[in-house]
Specification:
- The chain is α/β, with parallel strands linked by helices and 289 residues long.
- The chain has a domain of 198 residues: NADP-dependent oxidoreductase domain (TIM Barrel), CATH 3.20.20.
- Helix content is 38%, strand content 13%.
- The chain has an eight-stranded parallel β-sheet with strand order 3-4-5-6-7-8-9-10. Strands 1-2 form a two-stranded antiparallel ribbon.
- Strand 4, helix 2 and strand 5 form a beta-alpha-beta unit.
- Helix 2 crosses helix 3 and helix 3 packs across helix 4.
- 47% of the residues are buried.
- The N terminus is likely disordered.
């Protein structure tokens, strides 16, 4: 099943942004740092990404690397003569810290580790039943107090979003979910678009599992691009923000080199047809953390 009438070309460069429904501007492409440990490798990855034009960095409390992310940000700002407001920094509240007071405290802890005065985006990492509504109230408080520029969720299914918005004052600006050609999330993509919630892809390359796919290989060869570049371009043409992960400067550069080609509707449809509703991460309706 293909995703009908969604193909678009939203971004022209790594500095291209989408305006979220609260007015915040977010880059279409960012650097993910999941499963990258604290240390110089991470600091250098962020420095490399910013030097190459990236302006968005995505981390989370549970990644255990916010201190190095913060150090990388500070060095990158200095080296590139940038100011803090030229970067877009995301972190997430972990399941153990959900609930009203705990979320407020977790936000301050993340800021302390990052060495930042605010985040551009703070997300509920997973939809823990019975906790995400109180957590969202805390996020709304942080936003209304101008402690954070935008708030959103991660790994929320359509029914989670409906349930949250039944009682929420503010609508999430982002839903960051697993999204790739084996998990095209048709219903969720359509629903978030209808509600003005921007979809963002984590694990856009399916943790490397797509790199031998013949359909993607043929399309990549035609364009003189890599399978990773074709897959990330597919994200963008579906209007989905994407945050590929790498610590290698060459790979970081390749993952950002998406703006000198476009996929035809036929190619988009062929990639859509790879969907198997297959996840590499946990099921948002069946997780135990």
């Amino acid at each position: 099943m293909t995703i009908a009438n969604q193909s678009q070309q939203p971004a022209a460069s790594l500095q291209s942004t989408i305006t979220l429904h609260n007015g915040s501007s977010m880059p279409w492409v960012g650097l993910g740092v999941f499963q990258v440990e604290e240390g110089q490798e991470l600091v250098d990855a962020i420095r490399s990404a910013v030097r190459q034009g990236y302006r968005s960095i995505d981390t989370a409390a549970i990644y255990g690397n916010e201190t190095s992310v913060g150090e990388g940000i500070r060095q990158a700002l200095a080296e590139n003569n940038l100011t803090r407001d030229q970067l877009f920094i995301t972190s997430k509240v972990w399941t153990a810290d959900m609930g009203y007071e705990a979320t407020i405290a977790a936000y301050e802890t993340s800021l302390g580790k990052l060495g930042l005065e605010y985040l551009d985006l703070y997300l509920i990492h997973w939809p823990v039943k019975g906790k995400y509504k109180d957590t969202w109230r805390a996020m709304e408080k942080l936003y209304k107090d101008d402690r954070v520029k935008a708030i959103g969720v991660s790994n929320f299914q359509t029914h989670h979003l409906r349930d949250l918005m039944d009682s929420a004052e503010l609508k999430p600006v982002i839903n960051q979910v697993e999204f790739h050609p084996r998990l095209t999330q048709n219903e969720l993509l359509a629903y978030t678009r209808e509600k003005g919630i921007q979809l963002e892809a984590w694990s856009p390359l399916m943790q490397g599992q797509l790199l031998q796919n013949e359909t993607l290989a043929q399309i990549a060869k035609k364009h003189g691009k890599s399978i990773a570049q074709v897959t990330l371009r597919w994200d963008l043409q579906h209007g989905v923000v994407t945050i590929p992960k790498s610590t290698k400067p060459v790979r970081i550069a390749q993952n950002g080199d998406l703006f000198d080609f476009s996929l035809s509707q036929e190619e988009m449809d062929a990639i859509d047809a790879l969907n198997e509703n297959r996840r590499v991460g946990p099921d948002p309706d069946n997780f135990d953390f």
